[in-house]
Amino acid sequence: MLVDSHCHLNYKGLVEQQGDVLERARARGVTAMLNIATRESEWDDVLAAAEANPDVWASVGIHPHDADHHPDVDTAKLVERAAHPRVIGIGETGLDYYYHKSDRARQQDSFRRHIHAAQQTQLPIIVHTRDAEDDTLALLGEEMARAPFPGVIHCFTASDDFAKAALALGLYISISGIVTFKNAADLQATATWVPQDRLLVETDSPFLAPVPHRGKTGEPAFVADTLAFLATLRGDDRDALAAATSVNFYALFSKAAP
Ligand SMILES: [Zn+2]
Ligand SMILES: [Zn+2]
Prior knowledge:
By secondary structure, the protein is of the alpha/beta class. Helix content is about 40%, strand content about 15%. It is globular and about 40 Å long. The site of one zinc ion has 4 residues, from loops.
Protein backbone atom coordinates (compact mmCIF):
# COMPACT_ATOMS: atom_id res chain seq x y z
CA MET A 1 0.00 0.00 0.00
CA LEU A 2 1.13 3.53 -0.81
CA VAL A 3 -1.12 6.60 -0.66
CA ASP A 4 -0.71 10.06 -2.17
CA SER A 5 -2.64 12.08 0.41
CA HIS A 6 -2.74 15.31 -1.63
CA CYS A 7 -2.75 15.82 -5.40
CA HIS A 8 -4.55 17.99 -7.94
CA LEU A 9 -5.52 15.63 -10.77
CA ASN A 10 -7.73 18.30 -12.34
CA TYR A 11 -5.02 20.94 -12.65
CA LYS A 12 -3.44 21.84 -15.97
CA GLY A 13 -0.52 19.48 -16.61
CA LEU A 14 -2.36 16.44 -15.19
CA VAL A 15 -5.95 16.77 -16.36
CA GLU A 16 -5.02 16.46 -20.06
CA GLN A 17 -3.45 13.04 -19.41
CA GLN A 18 -5.34 11.94 -16.30
CA GLY A 19 -5.77 8.32 -17.42
CA ASP A 20 -2.03 7.89 -18.09
CA VAL A 21 -1.15 9.68 -14.85
CA LEU A 22 -3.30 7.24 -12.87
CA GLU A 23 -1.79 4.24 -14.68
CA ARG A 24 1.77 5.40 -13.95
CA ALA A 25 0.87 5.85 -10.27
CA ARG A 26 -0.62 2.35 -10.05
CA ALA A 27 2.47 0.92 -11.78
CA ARG A 28 4.61 2.30 -8.95
CA GLY A 29 2.40 0.83 -6.26
CA VAL A 30 0.18 3.81 -5.44
CA THR A 31 -3.08 2.32 -4.18
CA ALA A 32 -5.02 5.51 -3.35
CA MET A 33 -4.92 9.22 -4.14
CA LEU A 34 -6.79 12.14 -2.61
CA ASN A 35 -7.76 14.62 -5.33
CA ILE A 36 -7.92 18.04 -3.66
CA ALA A 37 -10.29 20.87 -4.60
CA THR A 38 -9.20 24.51 -4.43
CA ARG A 39 -12.11 26.44 -6.07
CA GLU A 40 -15.84 25.88 -6.25
CA SER A 41 -15.66 25.73 -10.07
CA GLU A 42 -13.49 22.57 -9.74
CA TRP A 43 -15.73 20.64 -7.38
CA ASP A 44 -17.72 18.77 -10.04
CA ASP A 45 -14.57 17.73 -11.93
CA VAL A 46 -12.67 16.68 -8.80
CA LEU A 47 -15.66 14.56 -7.80
CA ALA A 48 -16.06 13.10 -11.29
CA ALA A 49 -12.48 11.77 -11.18
CA ALA A 50 -13.26 10.11 -7.84
CA GLU A 51 -16.51 8.64 -9.14
CA ALA A 52 -14.74 7.20 -12.18
CA ASN A 53 -11.79 5.65 -10.28
CA PRO A 54 -12.14 3.53 -7.14
CA ASP A 55 -8.59 4.48 -6.01
CA VAL A 56 -9.27 8.24 -6.27
CA TRP A 57 -11.03 10.14 -3.46
CA ALA A 58 -12.14 13.78 -3.39
CA SER A 59 -12.22 16.79 -1.08
CA VAL A 60 -14.33 19.96 -1.20
CA GLY A 61 -12.87 23.31 -0.24
CA ILE A 62 -11.53 26.73 -1.18
CA HIS A 63 -7.78 27.43 -1.19
CA PRO A 64 -6.75 30.47 0.88
CA HIS A 65 -5.53 32.08 -2.38
CA ASP A 66 -9.14 32.04 -3.60
CA ALA A 67 -10.93 33.12 -0.42
CA ASP A 68 -11.66 36.58 -1.90
CA HIS A 69 -13.58 35.06 -4.80
CA HIS A 70 -15.85 32.79 -2.73
CA PRO A 71 -17.73 34.92 -0.18
CA ASP A 72 -20.79 32.69 -0.69
CA VAL A 73 -19.14 29.35 0.13
CA ASP A 74 -20.33 28.93 3.69
CA THR A 75 -20.29 26.01 6.10
CA ALA A 76 -23.70 24.76 4.94
CA LYS A 77 -22.52 24.55 1.32
CA LEU A 78 -19.37 22.64 2.31
CA VAL A 79 -21.35 20.24 4.52
CA GLU A 80 -23.89 19.63 1.76
CA ARG A 81 -21.24 18.71 -0.85
CA ALA A 82 -19.26 16.68 1.70
CA ALA A 83 -22.21 14.30 2.03
CA HIS A 84 -21.23 12.75 -1.31
CA PRO A 85 -19.85 9.23 -0.69
CA ARG A 86 -16.56 9.95 -2.51
CA VAL A 87 -15.80 13.15 -0.54
CA ILE A 88 -13.60 12.23 2.42
CA GLY A 89 -12.09 15.58 3.50
CA ILE A 90 -12.69 19.34 3.81
CA GLY A 91 -10.16 21.61 2.07
CA GLU A 92 -7.73 22.61 1.14
CA THR A 93 -8.13 25.65 3.33
CA GLY A 94 -5.90 27.61 5.69
CA LEU A 95 -3.83 30.78 5.62
CA ASP A 96 -1.19 31.91 3.11
CA TYR A 97 0.43 35.23 4.00
CA TYR A 98 3.41 34.52 1.72
CA TYR A 99 1.64 34.95 -1.62
CA HIS A 100 -1.16 36.90 0.07
CA LYS A 101 -3.49 36.52 -2.91
CA SER A 102 -6.58 37.04 -0.74
CA ASP A 103 -7.28 39.47 2.08
CA ARG A 104 -6.15 38.13 5.49
CA ALA A 105 -9.51 38.63 7.20
CA ARG A 106 -11.27 36.82 4.33
CA GLN A 107 -8.76 33.95 4.51
CA GLN A 108 -9.43 33.62 8.24
CA ASP A 109 -13.18 33.76 7.74
CA SER A 110 -13.01 31.07 5.03
CA PHE A 111 -10.70 28.90 7.19
CA ARG A 112 -13.22 29.11 10.05
CA ARG A 113 -16.12 28.08 7.78
CA HIS A 114 -14.13 25.02 6.71
CA ILE A 115 -13.30 24.14 10.32
CA HIS A 116 -16.99 24.41 11.22
CA ALA A 117 -17.76 21.99 8.38
CA ALA A 118 -15.12 19.59 9.75
CA GLN A 119 -16.63 19.89 13.23
CA GLN A 120 -20.11 19.11 11.88
CA THR A 121 -19.14 16.26 9.56
CA GLN A 122 -16.08 14.95 11.46
CA LEU A 123 -14.34 14.75 8.07
CA PRO A 124 -10.68 15.80 8.35
CA ILE A 125 -9.67 19.33 7.47
CA ILE A 126 -6.77 19.70 5.00
CA VAL A 127 -4.74 22.70 6.16
CA HIS A 128 -2.44 24.79 3.96
CA THR A 129 -0.29 27.25 5.93
CA ARG A 130 2.54 29.50 4.75
CA ASP A 131 4.11 32.41 6.63
CA ALA A 132 1.10 32.32 8.94
CA GLU A 133 2.09 29.97 11.78
CA ASP A 134 0.81 32.07 14.67
CA ASP A 135 -2.61 32.80 13.21
CA THR A 136 -3.02 29.24 11.93
CA LEU A 137 -2.29 27.76 15.35
CA ALA A 138 -4.41 30.32 17.19
CA LEU A 139 -7.40 29.58 14.99
CA LEU A 140 -6.98 25.80 15.11
CA GLY A 141 -6.51 25.85 18.89
CA GLU A 142 -9.49 28.09 19.53
CA GLU A 143 -11.79 26.00 17.35
CA MET A 144 -10.44 22.69 18.68
CA ALA A 145 -11.32 23.86 22.20
CA ARG A 146 -14.85 24.70 21.00
CA ALA A 147 -15.45 21.34 19.29
CA PRO A 148 -12.80 18.76 18.30
CA PHE A 149 -12.18 17.87 14.64
CA PRO A 150 -9.62 15.71 12.78
CA GLY A 151 -7.11 17.16 10.32
CA VAL A 152 -3.76 17.27 8.58
CA ILE A 153 -1.17 19.99 7.95
CA HIS A 154 -0.49 19.37 4.27
CA CYS A 155 2.83 20.00 2.47
CA PHE A 156 4.44 20.70 5.81
CA THR A 157 7.15 23.40 5.71
CA ALA A 158 6.61 25.10 9.07
CA SER A 159 8.82 25.14 12.17
CA ASP A 160 9.52 22.37 14.68
CA ASP A 161 7.48 24.28 17.24
CA PHE A 162 4.54 24.42 14.88
CA ALA A 163 4.82 20.67 14.25
CA LYS A 164 4.80 19.98 18.00
CA ALA A 165 1.76 22.21 18.51
CA ALA A 166 -0.11 20.65 15.59
CA LEU A 167 0.61 17.14 16.90
CA ALA A 168 -0.56 18.21 20.38
CA LEU A 169 -3.87 19.26 18.77
CA GLY A 170 -4.19 15.72 17.39
CA LEU A 171 -3.39 16.69 13.79
CA TYR A 172 -1.35 14.69 11.29
CA ILE A 173 1.65 15.98 9.31
CA SER A 174 1.97 15.37 5.58
CA ILE A 175 5.40 15.53 3.93
CA SER A 176 5.73 16.48 0.26
CA GLY A 177 8.58 16.23 -2.28
CA ILE A 178 10.08 19.39 -0.77
CA VAL A 179 11.79 17.09 1.75
CA THR A 180 14.01 15.77 -1.07
CA PHE A 181 15.29 19.25 -2.00
CA LYS A 182 18.90 20.16 -1.17
CA ASN A 183 17.88 23.36 0.64
CA ALA A 184 15.31 21.63 2.89
CA ALA A 185 17.52 20.94 5.92
CA ASP A 186 14.96 22.25 8.44
CA LEU A 187 12.13 20.17 7.01
CA GLN A 188 14.40 17.11 6.85
CA ALA A 189 15.22 17.59 10.54
CA THR A 190 11.51 17.78 11.42
CA ALA A 191 10.67 14.79 9.24
CA THR A 192 13.09 12.58 11.19
CA TRP A 193 11.25 12.93 14.50
CA VAL A 194 7.54 13.17 13.61
CA PRO A 195 6.02 10.01 15.13
CA GLN A 196 5.46 7.34 12.50
CA ASP A 197 1.80 6.99 13.46
CA ARG A 198 1.08 10.66 12.62
CA LEU A 199 2.89 10.88 9.29
CA LEU A 200 1.40 11.09 5.78
CA VAL A 201 3.09 11.55 2.38
CA GLU A 202 1.88 13.52 -0.63
CA THR A 203 2.95 14.97 -3.96
CA ASP A 204 0.85 18.18 -4.14
CA SER A 205 1.21 17.44 -7.87
CA PRO A 206 1.39 18.96 -10.46
CA PHE A 207 3.68 21.06 -8.23
CA LEU A 208 6.86 20.15 -6.34
CA ALA A 209 8.21 17.18 -8.29
CA PRO A 210 10.72 15.49 -5.95
CA VAL A 211 14.31 14.50 -6.72
CA PRO A 212 15.05 12.86 -9.22
CA HIS A 213 12.20 14.45 -11.21
CA ARG A 214 12.83 18.12 -10.43
CA GLY A 215 11.73 20.46 -13.21
CA LYS A 216 9.13 17.99 -14.47
CA THR A 217 5.38 18.17 -13.92
CA GLY A 218 4.71 16.46 -10.60
CA GLU A 219 2.38 13.45 -10.57
CA PRO A 220 1.15 10.96 -7.97
CA ALA A 221 3.61 8.24 -9.11
CA PHE A 222 6.39 10.37 -7.61
CA VAL A 223 5.08 9.84 -4.09
CA ALA A 224 7.12 6.61 -4.27
CA ASP A 225 10.32 8.68 -4.58
CA THR A 226 9.41 10.93 -1.66
CA LEU A 227 8.51 7.90 0.45
CA ALA A 228 11.83 6.19 -0.36
CA PHE A 229 13.78 9.34 0.50
CA LEU A 230 11.88 9.74 3.75
CA ALA A 231 12.48 6.11 4.75
CA THR A 232 16.25 6.52 4.24
CA LEU A 233 16.23 9.83 6.12
CA ARG A 234 14.41 8.32 9.10
CA GLY A 235 16.20 4.98 9.03
CA ASP A 236 12.86 3.25 8.47
CA ASP A 237 12.23 0.22 6.29
CA ARG A 238 10.72 1.47 3.02
CA ASP A 239 7.82 -0.99 2.87
CA ALA A 240 7.07 -0.55 6.56
CA LEU A 241 6.89 3.23 6.14
CA ALA A 242 4.69 2.86 3.05
CA ALA A 243 2.36 0.62 5.03
CA ALA A 244 2.38 2.90 8.09
CA THR A 245 1.59 6.06 6.12
CA SER A 246 -1.21 4.20 4.34
CA VAL A 247 -2.68 2.93 7.61
CA ASN A 248 -2.47 6.51 8.93
CA PHE A 249 -4.30 7.80 5.85
CA TYR A 250 -7.23 5.44 6.43
CA ALA A 251 -7.22 6.13 10.17
CA LEU A 252 -7.51 9.87 9.50
CA PHE A 253 -9.71 9.77 6.37
CA SER A 254 -11.89 7.09 7.87
CA LYS A 255 -14.72 7.60 5.36
CA ALA A 256 -12.42 6.02 2.72
CA ALA A 257 -12.41 2.23 2.59
CA PRO A 258 -9.04 0.62 1.76
ZN1 LIG B 1 -1.56 23.81 -0.35
ZN1 LIG C 1 -2.62 21.53 -2.82
